[in-house]
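Journal club prep — side note

Before the paper discussion, L.F. wants everyone to see what a predicted structure for a comparable chain looks like in token form. Sequence:
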Amino acid sequence: MNEKDLVTRALATALNGQLALEEIKNLLENPKSAVHGDVAFPAFFLAKILRKAPNIIASELAAKITADDFEKIEVVGPYINFFMNKKKVSAKVLQQILSQGTHFGDFNEGDGRNIVIDMSSPNIAKPFSIGHLRSTVIGDALANIFAKLDYNPVRINHLGDWGKQFGMLITAYKKWGKKEAVKAHPIDELLKLYVRINAEAKVNPTLDEEAREWFLKLERGDQETYKLWQWFRDESLIEFNRLYKQLDVSFDSINGEAFYNDKMAEVVDILESKGLLKVSKGATIVDLEKYDLNPALIKKADGATLYITRDLAAALFRKRKYDFAKCVYVVGQEQASHFKQLKAVLKEMGYSWADDVYHVPFGLVTKDGKKLSTRKGNVILLEATLHEADKRALKQIDEKKTNLSNKEQVAHAVGTGAVKFFDLKTDRMNGYDFNLEAMVSFEGETGPYVQYTHARSMSILRKADFKVESLATYALKDAESWEIIKLLQAFPQIVQRSADRFEPSIIAKYTLQLSQSFNKYYAHVRILDENEEKSARLTLVYAVATVLKEALRILGVDAPDEM
């Protein structure tokens, strides 16, 4: 029970049922200044109900509240200000973290049910760029968040391994490609071909038509075309897997669009049997006018399938295979209308579980304010980025401390972790401009700053030869520790809120706030001095280290014990 729950319960008793618990809780405020307590209740909302002046209501209510859980209760005009019992709350919070460890903040909401997370999903035959990072790290963090709520995450890398772009690539390879060059540097060479075909198609429209013909051959199982496609796919996966290993991200399935080729006929049959298909200008559609959406294009006039046909087949397959409680698509916000259509068609097909399908959109990564584009050759390659981030982290570690035995390993945790953290601390719907120097800085609102705070707390515990089992007291009452206690107490609610909103940035920002509060505490309190609060202070340090490490783990970022 957190401080707002305690206040809510106390007010509910005093009000004797005149307001519901949820109504009371929604009215509570966090005072801007600590001099006004920890929680405030504005009584003027009760003026119409009780037909009294708000300041009188506040005074009468305060008189009815027992102060067992509070240091004091003050009435200031229409406000009742609650000051929590610091010793009692700190003892409870620290004891809870000591006993639960990394399980602090766990919930049993999911009850072991599956949550399918469609994430990363790069296109084959293209380099893994910084543009693919958002879906990958947001999806992985969401999987960890929901696992903490006792869901079973199923990470799916729905590879972009089908569609007209492969017709373009095959056309380019047939015209200008050299087998030896592709074998030597597969992704680099394929990217050059892809950029060239797109540039030349702008002045030569016949290339588009050739690409469509090659893709139709691929769909019909032409042996030569399929063999080329499989080669492109295999080479791409080698590079992708190397990068996923660097990011410490893994998947339960890499079934891409091609996997659903033989499953689309069933979707069309179901749509037809339910009378949902119409022909418009030669194309087969599902009318979604009642949802205020454009028609869902199921088949083009030439018979070629589209993304939504495969996504419908994928949704059916996933429901049957995983019986998911939620199916989450971590895909850029530019695809919002597509997923609205997908959900609407599933509803039209009569599937009640369409309500369990969620699109989790996100903003773009730019460079110098400009949109990145593989098609135009304007990309920031992720592998080179991570290598440079690790290199910069190693340089800063060398400047601070040179006797780390595993400094290359720590540099990787810090450098790669910095890139991931910077992405995740950004509100999901906001984009950000790529700036590696800002990402890897040990100062400011960065991953290395949080990691360094964790390492500092571990250093303190090592100096004190800290042992959890030897602690005898956990109560703290000073103002410096109280801000940390309140933040630690809030961690379970932070986890829950991040899940409810599909928003990892809530946890990332929390780690920054906790780190800032701890570093302020470290600067003002002599933690290792021998006095009656030493054990409690060390327990607080241990609690901060435990929660920071767990919060970073959820975000997919390592927390080294030394830096």
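L.F.'s comment for the group: The longest helix spans residues 223-247. Keep this in mind when we get to the figures.
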